[in-house]
Amino acid sequence: MEIIVYIIILLILIFWIYIIFIYNKPRKLTSKKIKDFQKKLKQIEVNISSKEKIIDYDKLYHKILLEAWYVWDFWSILKQKPIIIDDLNKIWELHKIRNKLVHDFFDFDENFLLNKQKVFLLEIKKLLDKLK
Is 58 within 8 Å of 95 (Cβ atoms)? Predict the structure, then answer.
């Protein structure tokens, strides 16, 4: 009887290791999903203010990560240190800027925001390229 319990425990452990291994890898996106995200990216680019662009880029980046099977809120995903993100510190910085814009009504210099929105755009394009 004891051996059966050990076998069941071992099988459950193997199952969870398998699940963690499968879901730890990002899922490739379909070409339709990639096109949808690229279309949304173009829609964001016509926003008037850099502040709005940064906020929308942050939302889009998070949505792309969710589609690639990373779960939870953006902050929790970044804490997992996803292998798909090349420069995690850069994404953290961009997300923190977004948080300051949304939650703290922080006023950044417009040139600073223009620079950061370009960085965010580039990072989104890199992420989409990796998920093709």
Answer: yes
With left for phi above 0 and alpha for psi between -120 and 50, is residue 85 left, alpha or beta?
beta
- Please, which residues have CB within 8 angstroms of residue 117's CB and are 6 or more apart in sequence? 50, 53, 54, 57
Evaluated on CA atoms 60, 21, 87, 102, the torsion sign reads: positive
Whether the CB-CB separation of 60 and 38 falls below 8 Å is answered with no
67 to 23, 44, 110: CA distances (angstroms): 12, 19, 32
62-100 per-position pLDDT tens digit: 999 999 878 788 998 898 888 889 899 999 999 999 999
CA dihedral for 113, 97, 48, 118, sign (positive or negative): positive
Rounded Cα–Cα distance for residues 90 and 127 (Å):
13
pTM: predicted TM-score of the whole model, two decimal places: 0.80
Distance CA 65, CA 51 (A): 22
State how far the Cα of 3 lies from the Cα of 13, in Å rounded to an integer. Answer: 15
Which residue reads 């990002």 in tokens? 26
> In whole angstroms, what is the distance from residue 58 CA to residue 48 CA?
16
